[in-house]
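U., I forgot to send this yesterday:
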Amino acid sequence: MGPVPASRGARADTRRRHLLDVARVLFVDQGFHQTGIAQIAARSGIRVGQIYRDFESKEAIIAAICEEDMSGWLEEDALAAAVDARDLPAIRRWIARFGEQDGSVEECRMMTEIMAEAGRNPRVAEIYRNLHARVRTCLSRALTALAPGMRAAEVAALTELILVMGSGTMSLRVLDPEGADLAGRIIPKLLDRELDVLARTHAAP
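Result:
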């Protein structure tokens, strides 16, 4: 079989993009548990059989959406470049985003839905654990680069604290927007102050 014509590949990419966009809306509006492949097919206009040729399961659709969102937000290449160059201001800016509210409410609802479904669905739980581990690894690397004198246990503790603050603020944006606004004014200041302390006490010799 010869190479796939570019036009066919482009059509396949467009179809998958449309399917993911439709699935995202349904997942946010109805939840993963209440959304089936048949509903995604009906809303997207893509046949069930074709959906299963593109994605082996509903969980694979969830994983694709999560990968897209995570890659766009995490900016792993930018962090790696900043660490390699020892660009401390860039590393601090990367870390500071964990205290900011730069995502849409829909994105926050998507992540809270993942956390809720993870308690019911082992495959979604695995997706969530992989995402969390990926973020934890990047954040630990950033903190270690910023403050190389920190002990591993200190890095781990601060990493978890930042992750908890970030996920808590994200949940508040869905459940209590006023509380999220308050947290959004305080958390960046706390985080910035902590990074100042790290820079002074654990800087490279």
